[in-house]
Amino acid sequence: KCINKIIPVLFVLILLTGCKGKKIDIPYDIDTTTSAYSFDTSNVSITADSFASSLCVVSSDITDGTEVDMSQATAAGLFDVSRCNTIYAKNVHKQMYPASLTKVMTALLALKYGKLDDILTASDQVLITESGAQLVGFKPGDTMTLEQALHGLLMYSGNDAGVVIAEHISGSVEAFADLMNQEALKIGATNTSFRNPHGLTDDKHYTTAYDLYLIFNEAMKYEKFKEIIHMQSYTSVYHDSEGNEKELDFSSTNQYLTGTVDTPENMTVIGGKTGTTNAAGACLILLSKDTAGEPFISVVLQADDRDILYVEMSELLQEIK
User: Fold this and answer.
1) Beta bridge partners of 76
2) Model-level pTM?
Protein backbone atom coordinates (compact mmCIF):
# COMPACT_ATOMS: atom_id res chain seq x y z
CA LYS A 1 0.00 0.00 0.00
CA CYS A 2 1.02 3.62 -0.34
CA ILE A 3 2.53 4.81 2.91
CA ASN A 4 1.14 8.25 3.73
CA LYS A 5 3.72 10.82 4.66
CA ILE A 6 3.20 14.44 5.71
CA ILE A 7 4.98 16.45 3.04
CA PRO A 8 4.61 19.99 1.69
CA VAL A 9 1.71 19.78 -0.73
CA LEU A 10 -0.15 21.87 -3.28
CA PHE A 11 -3.87 22.12 -2.63
CA VAL A 12 -6.39 22.76 -5.38
CA LEU A 13 -9.47 24.29 -3.83
CA ILE A 14 -12.79 23.76 -5.54
CA LEU A 15 -15.33 26.42 -4.64
CA LEU A 16 -18.82 25.05 -5.14
CA THR A 17 -21.63 27.58 -5.52
CA GLY A 18 -24.82 25.99 -6.83
CA CYS A 19 -23.92 24.26 -10.10
CA LYS A 20 -20.89 26.47 -10.77
CA GLY A 21 -17.35 25.66 -9.69
CA LYS A 22 -14.18 27.70 -9.33
CA LYS A 23 -10.65 26.40 -8.84
CA ILE A 24 -8.30 28.26 -6.54
CA ASP A 25 -4.63 27.30 -6.57
CA ILE A 26 -2.53 27.64 -3.45
CA PRO A 27 1.06 27.92 -4.75
CA TYR A 28 3.44 25.09 -3.94
CA ASP A 29 5.94 26.06 -1.27
CA ILE A 30 8.74 23.59 -0.58
CA ASP A 31 9.47 25.25 2.79
CA THR A 32 5.94 25.19 4.19
CA THR A 33 5.09 22.97 7.15
CA THR A 34 1.34 23.26 6.54
CA SER A 35 -0.24 19.94 5.65
CA ALA A 36 -3.96 20.84 5.73
CA TYR A 37 -6.39 23.73 5.38
CA SER A 38 -9.87 24.27 6.76
CA PHE A 39 -12.49 26.84 5.71
CA ASP A 40 -15.51 28.10 7.58
CA THR A 41 -18.27 29.74 5.58
CA SER A 42 -22.04 29.55 5.72
CA ASN A 43 -22.49 30.44 2.06
CA VAL A 44 -20.42 27.90 0.17
CA SER A 45 -18.86 24.49 0.48
CA ILE A 46 -15.14 24.30 -0.12
CA THR A 47 -13.08 21.16 -0.49
CA ALA A 48 -9.30 20.78 -0.64
CA ASP A 49 -7.58 17.86 -2.33
CA SER A 50 -3.96 17.29 -1.44
CA PHE A 51 -1.28 17.31 -4.12
CA ALA A 52 -0.63 13.59 -3.53
CA SER A 53 -4.26 12.48 -3.43
CA SER A 54 -3.92 10.75 -6.82
CA LEU A 55 -0.30 9.62 -6.45
CA CYS A 56 1.56 6.71 -4.93
CA VAL A 57 3.43 7.91 -1.85
CA VAL A 58 6.20 5.92 -0.23
CA SER A 59 8.57 6.82 2.61
CA SER A 60 10.71 3.67 2.90
CA ASP A 61 11.55 0.39 1.20
CA ILE A 62 8.68 -1.98 0.40
CA THR A 63 10.05 -5.45 -0.23
CA ASP A 64 8.35 -7.74 2.28
CA GLY A 65 5.94 -10.19 0.71
CA THR A 66 7.46 -9.81 -2.75
CA GLU A 67 9.55 -12.29 -4.72
CA VAL A 68 11.64 -9.66 -6.51
CA ASP A 69 15.38 -10.30 -6.79
CA MET A 70 16.73 -6.77 -7.14
CA SER A 71 20.17 -7.63 -5.80
CA GLN A 72 22.08 -6.23 -8.77
CA ALA A 73 20.34 -2.89 -9.27
CA THR A 74 20.69 -0.01 -6.83
CA ALA A 75 17.13 1.34 -6.92
CA ALA A 76 13.74 0.22 -8.21
CA GLY A 77 10.05 0.96 -7.85
CA LEU A 78 6.74 -0.49 -9.06
CA PHE A 79 3.69 1.75 -8.92
CA ASP A 80 0.02 0.87 -9.51
CA VAL A 81 -1.18 4.06 -11.20
CA SER A 82 -4.96 3.52 -10.93
CA ARG A 83 -4.99 2.40 -7.29
CA CYS A 84 -2.26 4.82 -6.14
CA ASN A 85 -0.46 1.82 -4.66
CA THR A 86 3.28 1.24 -4.32
CA ILE A 87 3.87 -2.47 -4.87
CA TYR A 88 7.66 -2.48 -4.55
CA ALA A 89 10.27 0.06 -3.50
CA LYS A 90 14.03 -0.16 -3.07
CA ASN A 91 16.06 3.00 -2.45
CA VAL A 92 13.43 5.03 -4.31
CA HIS A 93 14.53 8.29 -2.62
CA LYS A 94 18.26 7.77 -3.21
CA GLN A 95 19.70 10.52 -5.42
CA MET A 96 21.31 8.97 -8.49
CA TYR A 97 22.41 9.75 -12.02
CA PRO A 98 19.44 9.17 -14.37
CA ALA A 99 21.28 8.98 -17.72
CA SER A 100 18.78 9.32 -20.59
CA LEU A 101 15.74 8.87 -18.36
CA THR A 102 16.28 12.63 -18.10
CA LYS A 103 14.70 12.86 -21.55
CA VAL A 104 11.25 12.10 -20.13
CA MET A 105 11.37 15.52 -18.45
CA THR A 106 12.62 17.12 -21.67
CA ALA A 107 9.73 15.58 -23.60
CA LEU A 108 7.23 16.66 -20.94
CA LEU A 109 8.30 20.31 -21.24
CA ALA A 110 8.41 20.14 -25.04
CA LEU A 111 4.80 18.95 -25.09
CA LYS A 112 3.74 21.46 -22.46
CA TYR A 113 5.35 24.56 -23.96
CA GLY A 114 5.82 23.72 -27.63
CA LYS A 115 3.68 22.73 -30.61
CA LEU A 116 4.30 19.56 -32.59
CA ASP A 117 4.55 21.44 -35.89
CA ASP A 118 7.02 24.02 -34.56
CA ILE A 119 10.13 24.25 -36.79
CA LEU A 120 13.38 23.77 -34.88
CA THR A 121 16.82 24.77 -36.17
CA ALA A 122 19.93 23.00 -34.90
CA SER A 123 22.78 25.14 -33.56
CA ASP A 124 26.47 24.30 -33.14
CA GLN A 125 25.57 22.86 -29.72
CA VAL A 126 24.32 19.65 -31.36
CA LEU A 127 27.94 18.70 -32.11
CA ILE A 128 28.33 16.68 -28.91
CA THR A 129 31.73 15.00 -28.79
CA GLU A 130 31.50 13.08 -25.51
CA SER A 131 32.57 9.48 -26.02
CA GLY A 132 29.65 7.08 -26.35
CA ALA A 133 27.01 9.82 -26.66
CA GLN A 134 23.99 8.62 -28.66
CA LEU A 135 23.27 11.02 -31.54
CA VAL A 136 20.54 11.25 -34.14
CA GLY A 137 23.06 13.02 -36.38
CA PHE A 138 21.68 16.55 -36.51
CA LYS A 139 24.08 19.14 -37.93
CA PRO A 140 24.12 22.92 -37.46
CA GLY A 141 21.47 24.50 -39.68
CA ASP A 142 19.33 21.37 -39.95
CA THR A 143 15.61 22.00 -39.55
CA MET A 144 13.00 19.59 -38.26
CA THR A 145 9.62 19.72 -36.52
CA LEU A 146 9.28 19.38 -32.79
CA GLU A 147 7.44 16.12 -33.39
CA GLN A 148 10.40 14.72 -35.35
CA ALA A 149 12.82 15.83 -32.64
CA LEU A 150 10.66 14.14 -29.99
CA HIS A 151 10.85 10.83 -31.86
CA GLY A 152 14.63 11.14 -31.98
CA LEU A 153 14.68 12.02 -28.29
CA LEU A 154 12.41 9.30 -26.90
CA MET A 155 12.84 6.42 -29.34
CA TYR A 156 16.49 6.71 -30.37
CA SER A 157 17.63 8.60 -27.25
CA GLY A 158 19.45 11.23 -29.29
CA ASN A 159 21.32 13.68 -27.09
CA ASP A 160 21.46 16.16 -29.96
CA ALA A 161 17.66 16.02 -30.16
CA GLY A 162 17.57 17.07 -26.50
CA VAL A 163 19.76 20.09 -27.24
CA VAL A 164 17.62 21.19 -30.21
CA ILE A 165 14.45 20.93 -28.11
CA ALA A 166 15.98 22.77 -25.15
CA GLU A 167 17.18 25.67 -27.26
CA HIS A 168 13.82 25.93 -29.03
CA ILE A 169 11.80 26.00 -25.82
CA SER A 170 14.06 28.18 -23.65
CA GLY A 171 16.71 29.71 -25.88
CA SER A 172 19.62 27.85 -24.31
CA VAL A 173 20.46 24.58 -22.58
CA GLU A 174 21.12 26.46 -19.33
CA ALA A 175 17.77 28.25 -19.36
CA PHE A 176 15.99 25.00 -20.19
CA ALA A 177 17.69 23.25 -17.26
CA ASP A 178 16.35 26.00 -15.00
CA LEU A 179 12.87 25.36 -16.40
CA MET A 180 13.29 21.63 -15.84
CA ASN A 181 14.05 22.24 -12.16
CA GLN A 182 11.15 24.66 -11.72
CA GLU A 183 8.71 22.22 -13.29
CA ALA A 184 10.13 19.30 -11.31
CA LEU A 185 9.31 21.12 -8.07
CA LYS A 186 5.76 21.81 -9.27
CA ILE A 187 5.06 18.09 -9.58
CA GLY A 188 6.73 17.21 -6.29
CA ALA A 189 10.09 15.97 -7.58
CA THR A 190 11.98 17.68 -4.79
CA ASN A 191 15.05 15.39 -4.77
CA THR A 192 15.95 16.26 -8.36
CA SER A 193 18.52 18.57 -9.92
CA PHE A 194 18.84 18.83 -13.70
CA ARG A 195 21.76 20.44 -15.53
CA ASN A 196 21.01 19.40 -19.12
CA PRO A 197 18.18 18.03 -21.30
CA HIS A 198 19.78 14.68 -22.18
CA GLY A 199 21.34 13.12 -19.09
CA LEU A 200 25.04 13.07 -19.97
CA THR A 201 26.90 12.88 -16.67
CA ASP A 202 27.22 15.98 -14.49
CA ASP A 203 27.91 15.85 -10.75
CA LYS A 204 24.96 18.17 -10.11
CA HIS A 205 22.57 16.29 -12.41
CA TYR A 206 20.62 13.72 -10.41
CA THR A 207 17.18 12.48 -9.47
CA THR A 208 15.53 9.52 -7.71
CA ALA A 209 13.47 6.53 -8.76
CA TYR A 210 10.45 8.09 -7.06
CA ASP A 211 10.91 11.48 -8.71
CA LEU A 212 11.20 9.72 -12.07
CA TYR A 213 7.86 8.04 -11.35
CA LEU A 214 6.34 11.48 -10.71
CA ILE A 215 7.82 12.92 -13.92
CA PHE A 216 6.81 9.94 -16.04
CA ASN A 217 3.31 9.97 -14.53
CA GLU A 218 2.97 13.63 -15.51
CA ALA A 219 4.23 12.96 -19.05
CA MET A 220 1.57 10.26 -19.44
CA LYS A 221 -1.06 13.02 -19.49
CA TYR A 222 0.04 13.72 -23.07
CA GLU A 223 -1.24 11.24 -25.66
CA LYS A 224 1.63 12.05 -28.01
CA PHE A 225 4.11 10.96 -25.34
CA LYS A 226 2.39 7.59 -24.96
CA GLU A 227 2.16 7.24 -28.74
CA ILE A 228 5.88 7.84 -29.31
CA ILE A 229 7.16 5.58 -26.52
CA HIS A 230 4.97 2.77 -27.93
CA MET A 231 6.47 2.90 -31.43
CA GLN A 232 8.91 0.21 -32.56
CA SER A 233 10.33 2.11 -35.53
CA TYR A 234 10.13 5.52 -37.17
CA THR A 235 10.94 6.99 -40.57
CA SER A 236 10.66 10.63 -41.60
CA VAL A 237 12.38 13.35 -43.62
CA TYR A 238 13.88 16.61 -42.34
CA HIS A 239 16.12 19.16 -44.10
CA ASP A 240 19.66 20.49 -43.99
CA SER A 241 20.61 24.18 -44.04
CA GLU A 242 20.23 24.32 -47.82
CA GLY A 243 16.83 22.64 -47.87
CA ASN A 244 18.04 19.23 -48.97
CA GLU A 245 16.15 16.24 -47.61
CA LYS A 246 17.72 14.05 -44.92
CA GLU A 247 16.18 10.84 -43.61
CA LEU A 248 15.36 9.84 -40.07
CA ASP A 249 15.19 6.06 -39.78
CA PHE A 250 15.61 4.27 -36.48
CA SER A 251 14.14 1.69 -34.11
CA SER A 252 13.25 1.95 -30.44
CA THR A 253 15.97 1.28 -27.88
CA ASN A 254 13.38 -0.54 -25.74
CA GLN A 255 14.10 -4.27 -26.04
CA TYR A 256 10.61 -5.26 -24.91
CA LEU A 257 9.17 -3.39 -27.89
CA THR A 258 11.68 -4.76 -30.40
CA GLY A 259 11.08 -8.34 -29.20
CA THR A 260 14.67 -8.85 -28.09
CA VAL A 261 13.40 -9.48 -24.54
CA ASP A 262 10.19 -11.38 -23.78
CA THR A 263 7.50 -9.52 -21.87
CA PRO A 264 6.40 -11.27 -18.64
CA GLU A 265 3.22 -13.33 -18.96
CA ASN A 266 -0.08 -11.46 -18.69
CA MET A 267 1.64 -8.08 -19.10
CA THR A 268 1.84 -5.69 -22.04
CA VAL A 269 4.69 -3.20 -22.18
CA ILE A 270 3.37 0.00 -23.71
CA GLY A 271 6.73 1.74 -23.79
CA GLY A 272 9.20 3.72 -21.77
CA LYS A 273 12.68 5.19 -21.76
CA THR A 274 16.09 3.57 -21.61
CA GLY A 275 19.28 5.12 -20.31
CA THR A 276 22.93 4.12 -20.01
CA THR A 277 26.11 5.89 -18.98
CA ASN A 278 29.19 4.66 -17.12
CA ALA A 279 28.15 6.63 -14.03
CA ALA A 280 24.44 5.74 -14.12
CA GLY A 281 24.74 2.13 -15.24
CA ALA A 282 21.80 0.66 -17.16
CA CYS A 283 18.42 2.27 -16.40
CA LEU A 284 14.84 1.79 -17.59
CA ILE A 285 11.41 3.24 -16.85
CA LEU A 286 8.27 1.63 -18.28
CA LEU A 287 4.55 2.00 -18.71
CA SER A 288 2.89 -1.44 -18.72
CA LYS A 289 -0.67 -2.74 -18.52
CA ASP A 290 -2.11 -5.92 -17.04
CA THR A 291 -4.82 -8.07 -18.63
CA ALA A 292 -7.49 -5.72 -17.29
CA GLY A 293 -5.83 -2.76 -18.97
CA GLU A 294 -4.71 -1.18 -15.69
CA PRO A 295 -1.51 0.92 -15.98
CA PHE A 296 1.69 0.45 -13.97
CA ILE A 297 4.91 2.46 -13.89
CA SER A 298 8.12 0.60 -13.12
CA VAL A 299 11.66 1.90 -12.86
CA VAL A 300 15.06 0.24 -12.36
CA LEU A 301 18.21 2.31 -11.84
CA GLN A 302 21.91 1.45 -11.96
CA ALA A 303 21.94 -2.16 -13.07
CA ASP A 304 25.41 -3.42 -13.94
CA ASP A 305 24.58 -4.00 -17.60
CA ARG A 306 21.67 -4.18 -20.04
CA ASP A 307 21.07 -7.91 -19.64
CA ILE A 308 20.79 -7.61 -15.86
CA LEU A 309 18.56 -4.56 -16.29
CA TYR A 310 15.94 -6.47 -18.27
CA VAL A 311 16.12 -9.54 -16.03
CA GLU A 312 15.42 -7.44 -12.95
CA MET A 313 12.76 -5.37 -14.67
CA SER A 314 10.96 -8.57 -15.65
CA GLU A 315 11.24 -9.73 -12.01
CA LEU A 316 9.57 -6.50 -11.01
CA LEU A 317 6.74 -6.81 -13.53
CA GLN A 318 6.01 -10.34 -12.37
CA GLU A 319 4.84 -8.85 -9.05
CA ILE A 320 1.77 -7.57 -10.88
CA LYS A 321 -0.74 -10.31 -10.18
Assistant:
1) 90, 300
2) 0.87
Residue 214: what are its φ and ψ, rounded to 5°?
-60, -45
Query: HSE of 126 in the Cβ direction (CA atoms, 13 Å)?
Result: 25
Q: Residue 135 is which amino acid?
A: L
Cα–Cα distance measured from residue 269 to residue 231, given in angstroms and rounded to the nearest whole number: 11
288 is catalytic: no
Range 247-273 burial, b when 16+ CB lie within 10 A, else e? ebebebbbbbbeeebeebeebebbbbb
| Residue 289: Cβ-neighbour burial (10 angstroms; 0-12, 13-18, 19+) | middle
3-state secondary structure of 40: coil
3-state secondary structure of 214: helix
Our CA angle for 225, 230, 236, nearest 5°, is 80
Catalytic-labelled residue, pool 50, 90, 100, 298: 100
Single out the catalytic residue among 50, 90, 103, 298. Answer: 103
- Please name the residue ranges forming H helices in the chain: 103-113, 146-154, 159-170, 173-186, 209-219, 223-230, 255-258, 306-317
Considering the candidates 157, 170, 252, 298, report the single residue annotated as catalytic.
Answer: 157
Q: What is the pLDDT of residue 49?
A: 66
pLDDT digits (tens, 9 = 90+) for 184-233: 999 999 999 999 999 999 999 999 999 999 999 999 999 999 999 999 99
Clarify whether 100 is annotated catalytic: yes
Based on the residue annotation, tell me whether 38 is a catalytic residue of this protein. Answer: no
Distances (CA, A) of 174 to 24, 179, 232: 32, 9, 32
